[in-house]
Amino acid sequence: MDNVSLTSMFLRGGLIMWPLLVLSVLSALIIVERAIFFFLRRYRVGKALDKAKSAIDGGTLGASKNPLIQVASVYLGGLDQGREHVENVTGREASRLLNRHERGLRFLATIGNIAPLIGLLGTVWGMVQAFANIAALGDNVSPSDLADGIWTGLLTTVAGLVVAIPAITMARFFEARIDHLAHDLNETVSHLDEWTKDRD
């Protein structure tokens, strides 16, 4: 078999390759957008806590994309209305921030789950077509006819895995970052509770 290009392999995979192509583009867009989002919101817990402690002592937090600073700002802004109010508004702000960080990840994980199934569907359909062609050839069938049909059918499984592996990997990576953020938010609120307990 002569060397073939990616384009010819894509076309040979049949119609199933098109939804896989769409999913690959969507997956890439989500990954790039989330990577930029997380990059712009990098933070250091110690630095954020120092800034929050300074604000308690009379400093100012100011505007920030740091989620820990944002939660600290809401926390300190609600202290005058009581602990129950602080707990409510802080919880809502933390939930809002986590939801912003999770945006698109469920869809990315879904792509990772369904892409192999679409690829498998294409392979099964390709095998059905291959055996139908072999049956039509009757006594004129040759091993190359079977091998050619199987090779064509397997292309969609390969394509499905190529789409799924980076999608699942990056979804898990981003989810780990969000779990870490949730821990840091809880740590920030815990420190704020300790530093402002004398205001009760």
Task: Explain the layout of strands and helices.
Layout lengths: L5 H7 L4 H24 L4 H12 L10 H11 L5 H20 L2 H33 L5 H53 L5
Largest sheet, strands/sense/barrel: none
Average the pLDDT over all residues and give the rounded result: 88
Stretches with pLDDT under 50, minimum 5 residues? none
Give me the number of helical elements: 7
Relative strand content: under 5%
Structural class: mainly alpha
Portion in helices? over 70%
* Counted beta strands: 0
Number of separate structural domains: 1
Q: Give the SSE string.
A: HHHHHHH
Radius of gyration: 27 Å
* N-to-C CA distance: 80 Å
Instruction: State the shape.
Output: rod-shaped
Characteristics of this structure?
200 residues, mainly alpha, rod-shaped, 7 helices, 80% helix
Short description:
The protein is an all-alpha fold. It has seven helices and no strands.
Describe this structure in words.
By secondary structure, the protein is mainly α. The chain is built from seven helices and no strands. It has one domain. Helix 3 runs parallel beside helix 7, helix 4 packs parallel to helix 7 and helix 5 packs antiparallel against helix 7. It is rod-shaped. The protein starts with 5 loop residues before the first helix and ends in a 5-residue tail after the last helix. The model has no long low-confidence stretch (mean pLDDT 88).
